[in-house]
Each structure stands twice: as structure tokens, then as C-alpha cells.
Amino acid sequence: MCLTQSSNKRGRRAGLTLVEVMIAMTVISVAVYMLSSTITAAMVHSSARKERTLAVESAMNTLEHMRAAPFEDLFTLYNNNPDDDPDGPGTAPGSTFNTPGLAPRNGAQAVGFIMLPVLEGNLRESLNIPELSLPRDLNGDLVIDDNDHAEDYNVLPIQILVEWTGSSGEGHLVISSMFSAVQKELR
After folding, report:
1. Fewest C-beta atoms under 10 Å: which of 35, 58, 101, 171?
2. Domain count, the chain
3. Cβ-count burial 86-112 (b if 16+ within 10 Å, e if not)
4. SS3 assignment, position 72
5. Apex 22 CA angle, 18 and 28, nearest 5
6. Where do the H-state alpha helices sit in the chain?
């Protein structure tokens, strides 16, 4: 009789109970969920980083193209008026650009925008745009006025704005710069 009881005890402990199996399945399910969440988050983060890198490269390339252009033509090359382009209407890059790999935001026609201190098509130094350090004397006459300085500017503040919709949502990048006739002469 002693032999039968000890083999029964061993038989019951040899397998897992239903409760133990359910606990093991719960632990495994939670672990799989956490792993898949981590992988998904890493993929979204990687995609967002790639989109931001594209935006930065695009903005920097635009700045380099602007640096390569004749300083006296910068305003007419990069404003939003195609009629004053130096080589004839519609020949200049203009105030917008697109970037392969980035989709425009909110139905816009472009991803990138070049912001100049313009009011009603005129280059103004009296505008209140702190992001462009304005108001500011653009032509060096020591007077800040409401005149159009498209023909006589010595400094040109710009801001490049890149806005896109990507796999990780909406993205936004702003880069500001200041071009100067003095810098161009030093090269």
C-alpha cells in the first residue's frame, strides 16, 4: 500500500495543472506584447528620424544653392514673384521647394518654403518679424523705413520652413540664416 501511495503522489506532480498553464500563457502573452510594442515603436522612431534627416538635408541644400547665387539676385531668385526673375519670368527657383520622400502637409503644393521679409511683394526692413531679427536696417543707411529695398539691400534675412506629413505624423523644421553682401565679397 505504501508503494501505491507514493506512485500516485509522483503521478500528480509530474504534469502541470491548468492554473500553472494559464499563468505561463499569460506571462508569455505579456512578454510577446511588450516585444512587439518595442519593435513597432522602434520602427516608427526610425521612420521619423529618416524624415527629419531628409528635411534637414533639403533645407541645407537650399541654403547652399542660395549661397552659390549672386547676392544681388537672391531676393528676385527666391521670392514668390515669378515676374521679376533675373533670367525672365518663371526661370528662378522661387520661394518653395519639394523634397523626395516627404509629402506636403495639409494639401500644400510644396514641402519647403523660403520666407523673406516681404509685404505686398516688397522687401521691407520695418516689418516686425523677430524670427528674422526684424525690424532691421537692410540697406545700411542707418534708417529703418517702409520703402522697398529689393534693389539696395546689403543684408537679407531668410527663414527656411519645411513642413511634411509622414508615417510618424506631421513634421516641422525651421532654419534661419542671414546673407550679407560683405560675406559674399570676402569669398
Report:
1. 35
2. 1
3. eeeeeebebbbbebeebebbeeeebbb
4. helix
5. 145
6. 2-14, 18-68, 74-78, 181-186
Residue 50, classified by CB atoms within 10 Å of its CB into exposed (0-12), middle (13-18) or buried (19+), is middle
Residue 186 — φ and ψ, nearest 5°? -70, -20
Classify residue 12: in a domain, yes or no.
Answer: no
Q: 119 in helix, strand or coil?
A: strand
Asked whether the predicted pLDDT for residue 100 surpasses 80, the reply is: yes
Q: Are 160 and 59 in contact (CB under 8 A)?
A: yes
Phi, psi (rounded to 5 degrees) for 49: -65, -40
Q: For the segment 112-166, what is each residue's pLDDT rounded down to a tens digit?
A: 999 999 999 999 999 999 989 999 999 999 999 999 999 999 999 999 999 999 8
